[in-house]
Write a structure and sequence with these properties.
This protein has 145 residues and is of the alpha+beta class. It contains three helices and five strands. It has one domain. This is DUF4829 domain-containing protein.
C-alpha cells in the first residue's frame, strides 16, 4: 500500500511540475503572412517554410507573432552572408536555403529565462531554413536578429 502512495505522489509532482514549466505557447493565430513573388521558389515551397517557422515559433513562451513574410532580395543577402561565414557547410547550394522574417510581441508576464524582455517587440526577426536533400522538408538552421 505504501508503494502505491509514493507512486501517486510522484505522479502528482510530475504533473504539477509539467504544468508550471509549460507556460503559454507562442501564438500565430493573428499573424499576417506575406509572400512576395519569387524567382527562386514556388509559392508552395515558401508556404511549407512558413509552416515550419510557425511550428518552431510555438515554442516561444508567451509571444505573439504579428507578421511573417518572405522578401527574396533580403533573403538572398542573408544567405550569402551565412555561407561566407560558415564555410564548413558542405556542398551548400543557395537554392536549398530560405530566410523568412517575422515581427512578434513578448507578453508582459514573460519569464525572463526565455531570453526575451517582458513587453518587448521584435521586428524583422530572421529565420534561416535549409531544405533537407532527402526529405525535401525545411529545417530551421538559425534564428534571431
Amino acid at each position: 500500500m505504501e508503494k502505491k502512495v509514493w507512486i501517486g505522489l510522484l505522479l502528482i509532482l510530475i504533473i504539477v511540475y509539467s504544468m508550471s514549466i509549460s507556460g503559454k505557447k507562442g501564438s500565430i493565430e493573428n499573424a499576417v503572412m506575406t509572400v512576395e513573388k519569387s524567382e527562386k521558389f514556388k509559392t508552395t515551397e515558401i508556404e511549407t517554410a512558413i509552416a515550419r517557422v510557425e511550428k518552431e515559433f510555438k515554442g516561444f513562451t508567451n509571444c505573439e507573432m504579428t507578421k511573417l513574410y518572405y522578401d527574396e532580395e533580403k533573403s538572398n543577402i542573408e544567405i550569402n552572408h551565412y555561407l561566407i561565414e560558415n564555410k564548413n557547410v558542405k556542398n551548400a547550394d543557395k537554392k536549398d536555403f530560405i530566410v523568412l522574417y517575422s515581427d512578434f510581441d513578448v507578453g508582459e508576464e514573460n519569464d525572463q529565462n526565455s531570453g526575451f524582455m517582458p513587453g518587448s517587440h521584435h521586428k524583422d526577426w530572421m529565420w534561416l531554413l535549409k531544405r533537407d536533400e532527402f526529405w525535401k522538408s525545411w529545417e530551421v538552421v538559425s534564428f534571431g536578429v
